[in-house]
Amino acid sequence: MLHGPIWNKIPQFALPVAATAILGQLFNAADIAVVGNFTGELRTVSVAAVSTNSSIIGLVVNLFIGISLGANVTIAHAIGQGSDKGVSKAVHTAIVMAVLGGMFAAVLGELLAAPLLGQLHTPEDVFPMALMYLRIYFAGLPVILLYNFEAAIFRSIGETRLPLIALTSSGILNVLLNLFFVAVLHRTVDGVAMATVISNAVSAAILYRCLRRTEKAIHVEPKELRIDMDSMKRILRIGVPAGMQSAVFSVANIIIQSAINSLGTVIMAASGAAFNIEIITYDILNSFSQACTTFVGQNFGAKEIQRCRKALALCLAEGMAALLLAIAVILSFGRPLLAIFNNDPQVIEAGYIRLVTLMTAHIFSLCYEVLSGYLRGFGISLLPAVLTMLGVCGVRLSWIYWVFPKSPDFQTIMTVFPISLAVTALLMLTAVLCCRPSRRFGNVVGK
Q1: How many Å apart are CA 349 and CA 132, to the nearest integer?
Q2: Distance CA 271, CA 192 (A)
Q3: Averaged over 101-105, what is the pLDDT?
Q4: pLDDT tens digits, 226-277
Q5: Closest CA relative to residue 131, chosen from 56, 38, 185, 199
Q6: b/e map 178-216, b = 16+ CB within 10 Å
Q7: 415 burial class (0-12, 13-18, 19+ CB within 10 angstroms)?
């Protein structure tokens, strides 16, 4: 990352990250596909139960994934500075933070599961299954968050293949366990939830073993597992705003999910099925944002400011090419893909409306995600979080409260996505032009 051409290294970093995120999303997609095809008369209710939890789970997991980005940037800065001691302290601190944070989130989640589903206006026939799935998922948060922090540690040194290999192994296990619990043992949503937790535990164990065996600066020694206060402050200073930025989407989407739930079980099932397809394009664009953060983080630590500028331009250009290709392919096969989750014609047609609207809007998502990743690489994390709150949360909440009641249908809800994403992209571009971090920090380096 610190030497040689950048253009060929960015896709080498980003594409495995995208594949890892997509595979992780397939955990949830496999849950929906299995309960949608092997639970008989309960299939639509089961799909709705799993789908309605997506926004709640996203709120918790995205918050901690954002914090893990703080670990990524902190370690990347230390690598750029050539400080093996700083790298080691940050790595061990991140591992402990993941486990303790996961335990805290699990306890809090168990207490708030039922009230959260109640706030979503979950239908009475869906509520018991949705609550059962959510409680089991929350119980597995310590291992789920541990995997994400371990993956962030590897990405800080440019290693993106190992997290992909670990998740591929556990992903195959997840599908097998889903079929075993549901098709063989005749469980419903509780079976797929248990399969997801077990699979995440396996992927976390694989990466921990890799961290123990590596001879690089990120090597983990159990006796060194403690929190270094300076490292934790750096991780939280960058990670908490990044986590808030990610979580804001989920907060807004919880409100949107509540509006979707008011339209009935068919729309709930359609929206959930479409989400598990459209998230593929988001994972692709977000991988270029993470690439930008890591490349900028290491080169900023090494005081190679010109390479930071190049990383931004290349992440935008290469990310756009990958995104447009993915959109074209997925929209071409949108209806057959939706039928994998639920072959009800009404579900497929409503789901395709969401696919077309959301996936094309992800062009704006790429712009603001890469720009915010660029700012985070310089350690500027609070500003992107605030702008995301205004552009995403503010616009979407206003739309649901003021526009949706006047025209309460699915298309009205979907329209808010491209509007909010375009506003956020414009705000983020303005922030980069005003802050000019490469010029500001370049002048400091020059002095």
Answers
A1: 29
A2: 19
A3: 91
A4: 999 999 999 998 888 878 877 777 777 778 878 888 888 888 888 888 887 8
A5: 56
A6: bbebbeeeebbbebbbbbbbbbbbbbbbbbbebbeeeee
A7: middle
Q: How far apart are CA 131 and CA 127, in angstroms?
A: 6
The per-residue pLDDT for range 374-403, each reduced to its tens digit, is 998 888 888 888 898 888 888 998 999 899
> If we measure between CA atoms, which residue out of 197, 345, 168 comes closest to residue 266?
345
Phi-psi group of 155: left, alpha or beta (phi > 0 → left; psi -120 to 50 → alpha; rest → beta): alpha
374 vs 369: CA distance, rounded Å: 9
Better-scored residue on pLDDT, 233 or 3: 233
pLDDT (average), residues 335-357: 88
What are the CA-CA distances from residue 385 to residues 90, 227, 391 (Å)? 23, 25, 10
Confidence check: pLDDT of 445 > 50? no
Q: Which residues contact 116 (CB under 8 A, 6 or more apart)?
A: 56, 134, 254
Domain ranges of the chain: 9-439
Looking at residue 42, what DSSP letter applies?
Answer: G
Long-range contacts of 218-223 (CB under 8 A, 24+ apart): 218/75, 218/87, 218/88, 218/91, 218/153, 218/154, 218/156, 218/157, 219/88, 220/91, 220/92, 220/95, 221/92
Top-confidence residue, 333 or 158: 333
286 closest CA partner among 172, 362, 344: 362
73 contact partners, CB below 8 Å, separation of at least 6: 156, 238, 239, 293, 294, 297, 376, 377, 379
